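For consistency, the fold was encoded as tokens, which produced the following:
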Amino acid sequence: PMDESARKLWDVYTKYKEVMLRDTNTDHAPWIIIDANKKTEARIAAIEHILKTIPYND
């Protein structure tokens, strides 16, 4: 659970997170947003995304 001081700084954290994502997103190494509430779901989504970028023959 978040403590009170972290809650008060949430908007500041969000601002800097957005700046960091904007400034470090490149065509060569783009950020992607993985929308998941569970770590397992997030990891599977990340692996699926990576696999989709790798060309292979059936």
Residues 4-52 form one domain.
